[in-house]
Amino acid sequence: MTNKDAYLKKAHAKLDEWNADLDKMKAKLSAADADARIKLNESIHELETQRDEVKKKLVELERASEEAWEDIRDGMESAWNRVTASIKDAASRFK
């Protein structure tokens, strides 16, 4: 397995984890009061947008040659860190 393959496997696993976190947040919508529901919906939408950006970068990474993937990985890492921090923040606010 190349470094690229290992990285892609790790990235796909992280996306699955984010999707599970988002599903948990969505499940909390029905139990939230109206104000909390609005804020939670906004947070979920923002997180889904960020997650989708990471998915796009992941597709770029998958298509990149072995030589070019490391350059794309840097942008992926930045987006990855942003989404991870946002999900942790949202999850802690809506426990």
Name the features.
mainly alpha; 95 residues
Our estimate of the beta-strand percent is under 5%
Unreliable parts: none
Q: What is the number of E strands?
A: 0
- Amino-to-carboxy terminus distance: 39 Å
Radius of gyration: 15 Å
Please give the largest β-sheet: none
Tell me the structural class: mainly alpha
Instruction: Sum up the overall morphology in one term.
Output: elongated
Give me the number of helical elements: 3
Average of the residue pLDDT scores: 86
Task: Show the helix and strand layout.
Elements: H1 3-28, H2 34-63, H3 69-93
Helix pairs in contact: 1-2, 1-3, 2-3
Structural overview:
The chain has 95 residues and is mostly helical. It has one domain (3-93). Helix content is 85%, strand content 0%. The chain has 3 helices and no strands. The protein has helices at residues 3-28, 34-63, 69-93. α1 runs antiparallel to α2, α1 packs parallel to α3 (69-93) and α2 (34-63) runs antiparallel to α3 (69-93). The protein is elongated, with a radius of gyration of 15 Å. The relative contact order is 0.17.
Brief sketch in words of this structure:
The chain has helices spanning 3-28, 34-63, 69-93. It is mainly α.
